[in-house]
Structure formats: structure tokens, C-alpha cells
Amino acid sequence: MRYHISQLIDLPRFQVLMSTLWKATGVANALIDTESNVLTSAGWQDACVKFHRVHPHTRERCRKSDQYIADHLHDGAYVGYCCPQGLFDYATPVIIEGEHVANVFCGQLFHEPPDEAFFEQQAARFGFDEHAYLQAIRKVPVVTKERAEVVMTFLVQLAQMLALSGLNRLHQLEVEEELRVLNNTLTQTVAQRTRELMSTNDQLVREIGNINQLRKQMRELAVHDPLTGLHNRRFFDELIGGELARASRLRYSVMFAMADLDHFKALNDRYGHSAGDEVLKNVAAIFQKNVRLGDMVCRYGGEEFVIVFPGMQLKHAYDRLEQWRRAVAEQCVELNGRTIPTTVSIGISCFPFHGTVARQLIDAADEALYAAKNGGRNRLAIYGNADAALHGLE
User: Fold this and answer.
1) For residues 58 and 47, what is the distance between their CA atoms, to the nearest angstrom?
2) What CATH number did the domain enclosing 39 receive?
3) By residue range, what is the domain housing residue 170?
4) Fewer CB within a 10 Å sphere, N or C end of the chain?
């Protein structure tokens, strides 16, 4: 259809009508076009707009609920659905000349008084402010199924009236268009120019696609170390703040480790920089091979690596890093007929016990790394007292 629904009805007057309906029934409503743009709305509930459609997990539930309603709009006069959050939504389509142009929606309601224990569990699971969340849930209207069906019967009739009004407006617009075309002596020129513009637009779309692809590639290059294939310090700096914020909100520990190759300068001087590059790649491969999904291993600079284990206890992180240290020591690099031994020293710190921001935790891990170096290299050290840390933070 050449015209948007907003061109076929008087949206301000329709908004007044729907606001009055909400005040009369207590039932939230909206007019939404087929691109999911909200054209009018009244009475939307905080439980949905401030909680369910904000948290990633519950937002995905809402998306699936919206998709269910969209997929079943034409099964009957209207469709109703109880979302996984326990609220009911209803919708009916607006169809003009056989084309689906919008939906009249109502819902964000309960058919029975809500089970607050369920929503307390929801608040705990998704990190909602329980008091604010339950206050929002208590504001959701309880409307019997029978009453909701009466409201939807009214909205179905209203949608039909919208369609009729829109059809009349559509015909008016078509007549105006015919008059405009008849009075336009440059129709052929405009048509030709339009084709040229479309061709140019297609070319621009392709070029924009190429530019976007290049940007994506540049982004990948910007956050990866070209030698080892690991993420780099820029990637670490961009993501670590969000990881620590999640850990603070959800109350789980995060282990930091700074790993540094022992005697790397001497290795470069003796065997050459190509040998140093091979050693770096070998160590990076050992680290990358043994990470979990969600762990972070980055080349921090030079021969130094930073490792982050979200949600891991100190004892487990220590054991994991000790395995890595032994793997590096046992796997020598062979280059040009020469065997190049490699060892690594590792310093460990723990969020939130050794710091609550990345700089504090990096500094603590660095200090532990220096302790490992001073203790003879090829070993691990924990920031502070190692025995107390291992027994107190398990």
C-alpha cells in the first residue's frame, strides 16, 4: 500500500478515543503499525515497559509473545495470549482493501489476582528491584476473561470502523493522485528520473553494504592482536567494565590473572624476534585452547597476557592456571632445528576481594606477578597472602 495507516486516520483524535476507553475500562491499549511502531497508546503498565521489556531474558520472552500474536492474528476476529510473565495480551488486525496495515492491541492485564510469590521469584532471578517490581505488578488490572472479551468485541468493531474510514480516505487520496498525475505534464520525465535514482540507489546500497563490511572487518582488526589471534587490550578495556558491573549486580566472583613470559628479552636477543613471535603464538594457543565460553584471554602488551575467569572460585582458577603454566613449560618451540624452552609467571587477583574496578584488579595481579618473578619465575602467585587467599576465598 502506498500510504501509511497514519495518513488514513486522524491519529490525535483516535488517541483521545483510546485514552477515554482506558479510563472507562482500566485496560491498556495501543494502535501499532505493521513495522511495530506505536501510533497511539494508553495505560501501558510499568511492569512491562520498565521491567519485562528491559531485561534481556524477559525482553526475549516478550518478543516471543509478540511473535505468537503476530503469527495468529488472522486465526479469528482477535487473538489472545498469556505471556510467560503471566500477563494477558489481545490484538485484532486492521485490514484495508485486503492489506494488513495495523493492529489494535489491548492487554497487560491479569484474569485472576497474581501470585506474588511467582513475581518475587522473577525479581530475584532477573535482578529486579523487588519492591518497585511488586508495586508495578499490583498496579496491573485484574480483568475477567469475560470482560476482556467484551472489550475485544468492541475493539474488533472499532478496527472495522477504522478500516472503513481508512478505505474512504484511501479512495480520496487515490482521486487526488489521479488529478495530480493528469495535471503533471512531466510524468514521463519524472518516471525516467525515478528509474535513474533507483538505479543509483541500488548502487549506493551495494556500496554501503561494502562499507559496512569493511567497517566490520576494521572493527575485528581493531580488537584482535594480529600475531596471536587473541583479543587485544582495547577489547579488554571495552568489555571489562560491563563484566564487573554484572558480577557486582549478580554477586559472583571474577578472577584476574596477569601472565608474563620469563626472560623474553633474552630469548629475543639469543634466538631472534621471529623466535619470540613463535613463542608468543605457542603460548597464546595453549591459553586459548583451555578457556571456557565467557572467559577472556587478551594479549595485554609485549609478552604480557591478561586472563579473566567470570564466576570461578579462586582455588579453581589457581588450579587451571597451574595447568597452563605446566603446559607452557612442557611444550618447547622448535625453530630452525633449535629447541627454545619457555616458561611463564602468573599473578592472580580476585574481584571483589582485591578490588572493585579493573584498574585495582590489574594492579593487584601485576603486584602478584612481580612476586612470582621475584620468587624464581615459572610459578604462580596470588595477591596478598597466598595461603590465606586460597583458604579464605574458596
Assistant:
1) 11
2) 3.30.450.40
3) 5-181
4) C
All 3 cell numbers of residue 2?
502506498
Distances in whole angstroms, Cα of residue 335 to Cα of each of 94, 217, 272, 273, 332: 72, 32, 11, 12, 10
Helix H or strand E segment including 246: helix 233-250
Higher pLDDT residue, 365 or 179?
365
Question: By the 8 A CB rule, do 142 and 112 touch?
Answer: yes
Same domain, 255 and 203: no
Residue 324 shares a structural domain with residue 269:
yes
Same structural domain, 168 and 195:
no
Residue 214 or residue 236, greater confidence: 236
Specify which residues 104 forms β-bridges with.
31, 92
Report pLDDT digits (tens) over 60-93: 988 888 889 889 988 888 899 998 888 999 998 8
Q: How far apart, in Å, do the first and last CA atoms of the chain sit?
A: 65
Based on the fold, state whether residues 213 and 255 are members of the same structural domain.
no
The pLDDT of residue 309 is 96
Name the band, by pLDDT with cuts 50, 70 and 90, for residue 204.
Answer: confident
pLDDT band at 13 (very low <50, low <70, confident <90, very high): confident
Contact by Cβ (8 Å): 348, 337: no
What are the DSSP calls for 88-124, one per residue?
Answer: EEEEEEEEETTEEEEEEEEEEEBSS---HHHHHHHHH
Query: Which domain-ending residue is among 163, 181, 199?
Result: 181
Residue 194 and residue 59 in one domain: no
Say if CB 224 and CB 230 are below 8 A apart: yes
CB 257 within 8 A of CB 348: yes
Taking alpha carbons only, the member of 103, 53, 46 closest to residue 83 is 53
Between CA 156 and CA 246 the distance in angstroms is 45
User: What is the C-alpha to C-alpha distance for residues 63 and 56, in angstroms, rounded to an integer?
Assistant: 10
pTM: 0.47
Total domain count for the chain? 3
Shared domain for 387 and 352, answered yes or no, is yes
Q: Residue 73, SS3?
A: coil
CATH code for position 340: 3.30.70.270
Between residues 207 and 310, the one the model is more confident about: 310
For residue 122, which of 174, 86, 146 has the smallest C-alpha distance? 86
The whole-angstrom separation of Cα 326 and Cα 35 is 57
Give backbone dihedrals phi and psi of 291, rounded to 5 degrees, phi first: -95, 155
